[in-house]
Input
Amino acid sequence: MTTETPETTANSSLPAQPAATPQPLGLEPRIDPSARVTKSTLGPYTSVGPRTTIGETIFGDYSYVVNDCSIMYAAVGKFCSIAAQSRINPGNHPMWRAALHHFTYRSTSYGFSVGDDHEFFDWRREHQVVLGNDVWIGHGAVVLPGVKIGTGAAIGAGAVVSKDVPPFAIVGGVPAKRIRFRFEEHIQQGLLDLAWWDWPRAQLELALPDMRKLSAEDFVAKYKGAS
Output
């Protein structure tokens, strides 16, 4: 089940409320009242934290984003973990023009009669950010327009990712560079073949104890051919 949000599903102008126990995750996305989600599709068991903005994004099942983040024009896979103050596909400015300022494309906001530049926003949409499944975005990381991050990759805190990241790579720094891979190639391929992120919920529940206690290599060996 997915939920398609209307123009606005949560009002970011609401006054701050006392902390409360979060509602349990379920088939309907859990969106904090202070978050703003527009023109996006969120899967079941997803969560959007306080003061986070999501626009024109597909957000896969079980993925979550915590507080003070921004995600625009993105396709986020399943089981992704996005830490606080991260930016995915932040605003891009037209460096080829005489003026960088957004009065040239958000012209209506400045009272100009020519209207907004829709071609500019189409250009932004063309530079979608894509996250695979089970990606971890560390605190304060920035993923620049057009970047693709492979399944199982981990992005270090504060990293600025300007180039594609292969599956299961760990990257960090400014600009982000590969530090190492999480697993050897045969384990990476084994996990991709299993594609546990696509398993039905009942199968995930049965496998959960092994996810906790087994190494990735042992998990692949046990469940090979199960999917």
